[in-house]
Amino acid sequence: MTHGTTGWHVPETDLRAYARGDLQPPLLWSADTHLAACAHCRAVLAGAGDPAALDDGWERLDAALDAPRPGFLESLLLRLGIADHTARLLAATPALRRSWLGAVVAVLVLTVAVAAGHTTGGSPTLFLALAPLLPLAGVALSYGPALDPTYEMAVVAPMHGFRLLMIRTVAVLGAGLGLNGLATLALPGYGLRALTWLLPALALTATALALTARLGPVLAPSLVGGGWVAVLLAASGARSGEEATLVPFTAAGQGVSAAVAVLAAGLVVAMRDRFDLSRGSAV
Predict the structure, then answer these.
(1) What DSSP line would sit under 208-247, residue for residue?
(2) What is the average pLDDT across 261-271?
(3) β partners of residue 3
(4) For range 244-258, the mean pLDDT
(5) Cβ atoms within 10 A of the Cβ of 152, count?
(6) Which of 150-154, 176-180, 204-208, 257-261 has the lowest mean pLDDT?
(7) In this model, does residue 131 exceed pLDDT 80?
(8) Contact (Cβ atoms closer than 8 angstroms) between residue 135 and residue 162
(9) How many CB atoms lie within 10 A of CB 205?
(10) Are 187 and 112 in contact (CB under 8 A)?
């Protein structure tokens, strides 16, 4: 340090080294402490720095402050090796947010409570009817300009529209089917009958995806969900007694669900190019 009329100051050579980032401890620590309280040395340091380097530093600082911090889900995906742009698009999926997942859990808890109170016979009709609709609704929420907060980013992303749809669909199905599976474990009294929601859920989701390329991500799931409700109402009216199993959850109904799921999945793959053609309009 040098002594002036107003006290000790950092030598100008040290200030220039400080500005370049070359000043080493312990002189660096001493300069840091002194600059915090000395306006004179801060003025000398400002004149010793490279204006271009200083501007670059401020730009980097602004970019770091403005950059959104990844949330829990995005951080987890990054740790699993998912590319940052894919993780960002997945984390922004509405059907993977805590609010939606919390609503799904609440609905499942209520339906399981109702079904658990009627274990004397029959099947958990309400649970089986509702469980296939939850993954369908989750997929409907995951794609499209009306519901996706990152839709504009997805449109300009260098990614095939079909690939983006499949990535989000798999993620949403994994979460939805996982929650449904946990709810099923709370109904051990029904045995394998409590799992008969799985094939209808896959059939409904695959059918909605196949129709999305033509009808859009809102109308297609709405029509499929409405069709499922209509099938259940017709099956309920046709069953012989209150304890009889609805047709969609019998062996024959499960076979039809499996066939529909396979056929719809094939149509989705066959029409994969339509998701890019429609991404700028309906999808």
Answers:
(1) HHHHHHHH-TTHHHHHHHHHHHHHHHHHHHH-SSTTSPPG
(2) 92
(3) 8
(4) 90
(5) 10
(6) 150-154
(7) yes
(8) no
(9) 29
(10) yes
